[in-house]
Design brief:
single chain, 134 residues, alpha+beta, Glutaredoxin, 4-stranded mixed sheet, two-stranded antiparallel ribbon, 28% helix, globular, disordered N terminus
């Protein structure tokens, strides 16, 4: 969960459940996460950050490395301590909701580089659930 604070220096990613602190977090906005939650739960804690609704949304997004003006949706995969492992910034910019072949390829690389429990086949299944538009 995101702790809402008014001081950006106090923004932290935390979970009240100590068992969750050993899992990597996927900070994202896309709705496809809901459809694939069972697979994502194997490795990730999904945290949704809604600009305009969460008090510290901009501060947290900045902490995650998202520059102002980047498109949404945007996502990051972090360690429990907030160390960013991967973002949706691919070779062609923000992949947002992956739809092109290159964007889906970038999401697959994000999963491959951060997954601990997801098998290669499950990672492929997650990528395939996003039909390429181009």
């Amino acid at each position: 969960m995101i702790q809402d604070t008014k001081n950006a220096a106090e923004c932290k990613l935390a979970s009240p459940d100590p068992s969750v602190n050993s899992m990597r977090r996927l900070q994202t906005r896309p709705s496809y996460v809901r459809a694939q939650h069972a697979l994502l739960d194997k490795d990730y804690v999904v945290v949704k950050i809604l600009g305009g609704n969460d008090v510290s949304a901009e501060a947290v997004m900045e902490q995650l490395g998202r520059a102002l003006g980047q498109g949404i949706p945007w996502m990051a995969i972090t360690e429990p301590d907030g160390n960013v492992l991967a973002t949706s910034e691919g070779p062609l910019g923000n992949t947002g909701f992956p739809g092109s072949i290159e964007e889906v390829r970038h999401l697959r690389a994000m999963l491959s580089n951060t997954a601990r429990q997801l098998t290669s086949q499950e990672q492929d299944e997650l990528a395939a659930s996003l039909p390429a538009r181009k």
